[in-house]
Amino acid sequence: MAPPRDRSNSEGHKLVASNRRAHRDYDILETFETGIVLSGSEVKSLRDGHAQVADSFARIINGQVWL
Fold it and tell me: I need a surface site. Which of 12, 15, 56, 66 has the fewest CB within 10 A?
């Protein structure tokens, strides 16, 4: 198994999830950086690298992006 890649950028932020299938199957015209509210177990899973966004989508409602 390949070692995990360091996904932090020069600003010290860490990418925790990316929908690679969406980038392959669709033309991404615009991207947004978002924040979400998580419970304790969800935070722990993300820190352990167990995020899954393969079946996710976002919708803009009244100027807000909803997953």
Answer: 12
